[in-house]
Specification:
Rossmann fold, alpha/beta
Length: 173
């Protein structure tokens, strides 16, 4: 959840409530003193607004880390490649992950798939994620809503359990 994802270069985005839902879940986790882990994409792409030397690399206000919450910085889509995240989770005896963030079809999907393949129990919060419109290989437009729907369907039940914020919130109340 970085400020550079608000850049208009990404195109139309779905789920304008993702940040609100993420903030709600973060509050719940912090109120219960459960572990919160942040992933920051530090792009090496020279035109990316997520490069570490640009303001867009900063976390959005709704997802700012607080003292004691680890931040793992990555340069690829997976939160597990080159970050030490897996070692941290294993050493902290964390086996279940609740994943939120942007973008559903890139970093979120890649990290969910890898977490599941590494043996973690993964819960993906569908209304605390979002993505952007795309064009397929034939030049046809795919709306952000359709991209989200397809990627959630692809992940559901094979790599994770897909839940809503309310479902997660109610299950841990």
């Amino acid at each position: 959840m970085q400020q550079g994802l608000d850049n208009p270069c990404w195109g139309e985005r779905n789920n304008p409530d993702a940040e609100t839902n993420i903030a709600m879940l973060l509050k719940k986790w912090r109120d219960h003193h459960w572990p919160v882990i942040h992933i920051q994409h530090c792009s090496t792409n020279p035109i990316s607004p997520l490069r570490p030397d640009l303001p867009g690399n900063a976390f959005k206000p709704e997802a700012l880390p607080v003292a004691g919450e680890p931040v793992f910085r990555k340069t690829v889509n997976s939160a597990f490649i080159g970050t030490g995240l897996e070692s941290y989770l294993v050493s902290a005896h964390i086996r279940s992950l609740v994943i939120v963030g942007l973008t559903t079809d890139h970093c979120v999907s890649t990290s969910v798939r890898m977490a599941a393949n590494l043996g973690f129990d993964v819960f993906l919060v569908r209304d605390a994620t979002a993505t952007f419109e795309r064009w397929d290989i034939d030049g046809n437009h795919i709306s952000a809503h359709e991209m989200q729907r397809i990627h959630l369907a692809s992940l559901s039940d094979e790599f994770c359990r897909v839940l809503t914020t309310d479902e997660v919130y109610d299950s841990v109340s």
